[in-house]
Amino acid sequence: MAPLNIFGFRALWSPYFLVFLLMLITVYFFITVIYRRNFNGSEPLTTKQGIIFSFGILLLYIIKGAPIDLLGHLMFSAHMTQMAILYLIIPPLLIIGIPQWIWRNFINVTGIKPIFMLLTKPLIALILFNVFFSIYHIPLVFDMVKTDKITHASYTLVLFLLAINMWWPLINQLEEHQTLSGLKKVGYIFAEGVLLTPACALIIFADSALYATYSNPAAWQEALKLCVPSNKLSGLELAGPEIFNSMSLVQDQQLGGVLMKIIQEVVLGFVLASSFFEWYRKDQETSDHEINNM
Question: How many domains does one find in the chain?
Fold first, then answer.
């Protein structure tokens, strides 16, 4: 296997993206700590919120700025791991890490509230995310997105925002936005698990390589331009992605589908358990309150 350092520091560590994320964290703490009193309804930032938000941003850098991002252009399994973390783990961390008063002020901005309320309706949020996720994995669409910088950035951003919308009904802590509770939350979680299955099954059970950006050397090199500077890439003589992977294309592809499904099941299982215990706790509190009032 060829070493990744042949692509250079910029491709491996994305310094510009790192600077952007550091600025984002700085703005977050300026708003939530130093300038908090300038906002209506603000509350002190909790240690838990600060840690969770920072961890979410750290994960974002690890999968989109560190070597795993480059590896995602060389191995399909690495790409699917990226997607699982980007859309199934980071959004709930950011939803929890951003204080409720910031979410409330953002949602109440003129023009945003009706759109936000529509896109976070459970059924709409669930369908939109899974439709866009499934369309992305159609080979023709996948290869088009992976070989054009603007299309790739746009689709990734849209899918990330839809992932936030999808997680919002389950994770948000705003009292006025609790659209799911009890069995509805459980049903929502099961529906998410089912709707994501067809795309994963297509990948897992395919008996041939589906995506040109991992099997066709010309398409692969075009996709590499998204993360490797052109002047660096032009100086390399690369036969294809197989020189960076000990698995066959089909094995790597199947592993990617399996990893995506496993990560999804683990995350949804954790959320399901949390929702169940929350539901049980509230039910017990209600029962105890009724008994005490008898």
Answer: 1
